[in-house]
Design a protein that fits this description.
The protein is an all-alpha fold. It has 12 helices and 4 strands. Strands 1-2 form a two-stranded antiparallel sheet. The chain starts with a helix and ends with a helix.
């Protein structure tokens, strides 16, 4: 290729890719309203955004990947934690995490009930933005709290290989650890490791005992029924007291009965039943 041809190739290629870039940029701008559901940006959402900025939350947290990385990304926090948990947490963060035990301590933002409701509305609006799967994994607030402990998996050398396990159990474990459900972001399966929800170590065996206890308040009559009930109706029987509930309402989100289909719930139950 001669110098003239090389120069011509460079100029044409630059022009083509510039047009492609401008076209993609224009296309993105035409979809901003759809992707961000701008029509849902209510006065409460705007007020919540003001609370977010006024308290400099972005100095520790990230939204859509933008911000500091000292504390968890909150892009999907309302889907992963739920309004009840977030309300209680923002009223007094020290009840949930301590610097001594968890190596971090969120300062009390000293928000009013109205400000808490507003900032949760803002975070919920953010969580509905179509961001193509960001963040790529569940938030693990206490993942480094217990050195040498795997907080999301209890696999051992004696555990059956993936190919030897029932397909439903393997599917349930994948779903448990999937970012879309965020089960492992709230529940550890290591003994004694409580995250936003109680540890599920031994829950498969414990479920049978729970439904037989006099204080059981749910409607299930088998261990598997209790596990299913805990997924779709988490407030039917409260576990862990005020650490995981308030006024008889579990902090666990209540949307899994709608978000997951029956096969997915069955797979989760099959997996949880193996945690002896």
């Amino acid at each position: 290729m001669t110098k003239k041809q090389s120069r011509l190739f460079f100029l044409i290629s630059t022009a083509v890719f510039t047009l492609v870039f401008l076209g993609l940029t224009l296309h993105s701008h035409t979809r901003f309203g759809e992707l961000t559901h701008a029509d849902k940006m209510s006065a409460q959402v705007v007020a919540g955004k003001d609370v977010w900025h006024h308290n400099n939350c972005i100095n520790c947290h990230t939204l859509l990947g933008e911000g500091a990385y000292y504390a968890p990304d909150l892009t999907k926090i309302t889907q992963q934690r739920g309004e009840a948990y977030l309300s209680a947490f923002l009223k007094d963060p020290s009840k949930f995490y301590s610097e001594e035990r968890h190596r971090r301590l969120m300062p009390d933002p000293e928000l009013s009930d109205t400000e808490i409701a507003n900032v949760i509305a803002f975070l919920d609006w953010v969580s509905q933005i179509d961001n193509q799967g960001w963040p790529p994994r569940p938030i693990l607030v206490s993942g480094a709290t217990f050195p040498g402990t795997n907080t999301t998996s209890a696999s051992t050398d004696s555990e059956p290989a993936e190919a030897q396990r029932p397909a439903s159990v393997a599917a349930g474990e994948r779903l448990f650890n999937d970012a879309s459900t965020a089960c492992s972001g709230c529940h550890s399966i290591a003994p004694g490791v409580d995250l936003a929800g109680p540890s599920l170590a031994g829950v498969g065996e414990r479920a049978d005992r729970t439904v037989a206890e006099a204080g059981y308040t749910g409607e299930a009559d088998t261990g598997e029924g209790y596990l299913r009930e805990s997924i779709v109706a988490p407030s039917a029987h409260i576990v862990g007291g005020e650490r995981f509930s308030a006024n008889g309402i579990s902090f666990m989100p209540t949307h899994y009965g709608e978000k997951l289909d029956s096969d997915q719930i069955d797979a989760l139950v099959d997996y949880l039943s193996t945690l002896k």
